[in-house]
Design a protein that fits this description.
alpha+beta; 7-stranded antiparallel beta sheet; 8 helices; 7 strands; 30% helix; elongated; disordered N terminus
């Protein structure tokens, strides 16, 4: 017998890669339809049928006419406009657009200068106004970005008390910034009828910037158009509320 036939596998041995030959297996039962597939098929079929019925019903209905487009016709005056009457109907100019220095109250008799601050009503730069507090850099940026236009101030000293009255005006289109500046003051004690602001007196002392020296503080704040009115009193003893109220009322009356 040739060597090739001796090496061949027996005929009844399974061939590599195929299952062994055995008795016939029973046929598989038919697959049951899957519930999910039936549900999806029902939804698709229902949508198609419903859409077709709806389209058929809508196609048989008469078209609904759209309402006519109504546009107001331009109107023109029957006669020539009186220039004076037309000017009277225009928005009023700014309530305060004159010389701020002239609107400031003056230091009272018997007062003296307070350091190098102006003891007579004077113009102030944005840098000078910002330098009043210990947050000068922040205040300088704040004023410039919020529409600062100009400012005027007067300061004086009488006895141990120091006084400051300041007017800050914002640009004509930034009156809202003046309102923001004085918003909290509307909840304070009123110093005059119709005043858009209020006054307060601190019960606890504060400290001067970079100093251990104490002072008591009173202030008033109000808005008139684009102008913010600030009244400040510094004293070595608790500030008399009537003093702050009187100063604020005097200054407010010069703005109205």
């Amino acid at each position: 017998m040739p060597d090739a036939l001796r090496c061949a596998p027996a005929l009844d041995a399974p061939l590599p890669g195929f299952p062994p030959v055995g008795p016939e297996q029973a046929p598989r039962a038919p697959r049951r339809p899957r519930p999910v597939l039936l549900a999806v098929s029902g939804l698709v079929l229902g949508t198609l049928v419903g859409g077709g019925v709806g389209y058929a019903v809508q196609a048989q209905r008469p078209p609904t006419p759209l309402p006519p487009i109504q546009v107001a016709r331009p109107s023109y005056p029957a006669q020539a406009v009186d220039p004076a009457a037309l000017a009277a109907q225009q928005p009023k100019p700014l309530a305060i657009d004159g010389d701020l220095v002239k609107l400031l109250i003056s230091a009272p008799d018997g007062s003296t200068a307070w350091a190098d601050y102006p003891d007579k009503p004077s113009w102030m730069s944005v840098g000078e106004v910002s330098d009043h507090s210990g947050t000068a850099a922040r205040d300088f940026k704040d004023l410039n970005t919020r529409g600062f236009r100009r400012a005027a101030e007067v300061d004086w000293k009488k006895g141990d008390a120091k006084y400051r009255v300041l007017l800050i005006q914002y640009a004509p289109d930034r009156a809202n910034e003046a309102a923001v500046y004085t918003a909290f003051a509307r909840n304070l004690e009123s110093f005059a009828d119709g005043a858009n602001g209020g006054y307060q007196v601190e019960k606890e002392p504060g400290h001067w910037n970079e100093s251990t020296e104490q002072f008591y503080y009173g202030s008033a704040l109000a808005q008139r158009g684009t102008v913010v009115m600030v009244v400040e009193v510094f004293d070595t003893k608790p500030v008399n509320p009537e003093v702050v109220k009187d100063l604020a009322k005097q200054q407010w009356e010069r703005l109205v």
